[in-house]
Amino acid sequence: IAASLALASTDLTGNGLQEQRFLQRDRASVYTKPDNTKNQSALLNLTGSRTVSDSLTISGDAFWRTLKTKTLNGDLNDESLTESIYQPSAGERAALAAAGYTGFPTAGETAANTPFPSWRCIANGLLNSEPGEKCNGLLNRSSIQQREGGLSGQAAWTTPVPAGESRLVLGGGYVVSDVKFNQSSQYGYLTPDRGVVGISGPGAFADGTQDSENADDARVTLSGTTSTASLYISEHLPLTSTLTLTASTRYDRTKVETRDALNPGGGPGSLDGDHTFSRLNPALSLVWKASDAVTAYAGYTEGSRAPSVIELGCADPENPCRLPNAMAGDPPLNQVVTKTVEAGLRGNVVGWRWSAGLFRADNHDDILFVADDLASYGYFKNFGRTRRQGAELSADGALGPIDLGFHYTYLDATYETAEEVGGAGNSSNDTGPGFEGDIEISPGDRIPLIPQHVLKANAGWAITPKFSLNGDMIAISGVTARGNENGEHKADGVYYLGPGKTKGYAVFNLGAEYRPTERVKIALQVNNLFDKDYETAAQLGATGFTDSGAFIARPFSGPIVDGERPVRSATFYAPGAPRSGWVSVRYSF
User: Fold this and answer.
1) CA gap 144, 36 in Å, rounded
2) Beta-bridge partners for 487
3) pTM of the full predicted structure?
4) Is 12 helix (H, G, I), strand (E, B) or coil?
């Protein structure tokens, strides 16, 4: 019997993406603020096993996990970018004066003389009129409470057979989780330091009550429960002294319930829902030991995943949501089914372990987030098919006192079904430069944010029995930006300021370990040894700032299409971590 308990508490600041122009000037800069996420988690795990007889072993485990997350994010309100948000009208000036405000302009406020406008935002909050259009900032708050617990157990029998010993395993499990989610959005205005100041008044919050045809209700008060019952059986059977067959099947039945406290009862916009998913997933593999140095393997597996509460709560194209924190009404999604084929060779030659393999995994009804015509909004939907295929090579061994390892993965991740999705921020959209049109995804287009090449290398040197050094390198090719699903985005320096992908990079890490006694270990670790600047992800989107850092609405006077003006878009990056280091001391009792 073994038990473990893990507790964690984090307070993270600056988690958002940064626009390329400002990231180039200052790697520590943020696009807007505040940007804070606080997490508290606990995990209790208990495992046990018992040998009943020479041929029977039983085992099981139980766990309980909790997670609490709170976020406060100051964001740019994209809806303000095409609006007239500078000079207050007569009615707005009257509302400001009645509320005791002074110093607001009576005439002449423009983008040229007001880099950070606020008066129309404040006034529309007081009037509960159009703060969603006149405020260039949002304060988004959310809280999530998750609890999950589960039990599983299995029995394994071994039986002599002519070619060796077979192993039959029967098992099952049950996991249940619940989540409570709350979100609100408060209108505000941007300050010169990119902060967002929230406004007050009847229209301060995005609750759908504003006197505007585009009034947005961003409130969410949702609870959900997911339960999964599983049964599985597997047989490991030696067919000959060199050939082994493994066959298995697993049945999962998942029930997902969501309850909307703001809009109960189902219907348009409601998050209420009851969904059940079930599937039997088989697997089959063969392993052939060709010699003491070479083993060949081949296999086929199927797996499935039921949609999560969040995915089911944001699946209606008529009610798109803002990720990661918002949801909307939920037509049912299908569960994802993955079918995988793999084959390869592995072995051991003069002390070196090596392997080479090929794989192909096709996801049917893959669940992906699709951008909506409304900037920063979207919804989850099932795609017909996506594919991830490639090759893996690895080798581990030693040269004298130095241990070495090399691992390479080639991964071709593509869409295999044609699809039309929102193209805001993409230069190839079908409406025109600067507008929020659609783009066409074709079979063979690459899935964003998945690198095609990954190379890892590591080395360790035991200089003395008590002192050792270790180092590793990871090199990753560039990835396609989210929003460039068709791979056709190109910067033009006018409407579009950045490329549609990231650059590749390599990062080196170095560590040292010293053991003064058998019970004490002192370790030093330095990550990103050469302080390499790199980006791990990218996204296309509208930008609200000039080269000098001033906010600007309506950056172009025209053309006007369906009452909308074009906006400027850029590439937003997730910067990689700079050089960091720490020292740790461990004592073993």
Assistant:
1) 14
2) none
3) 0.91
4) strand
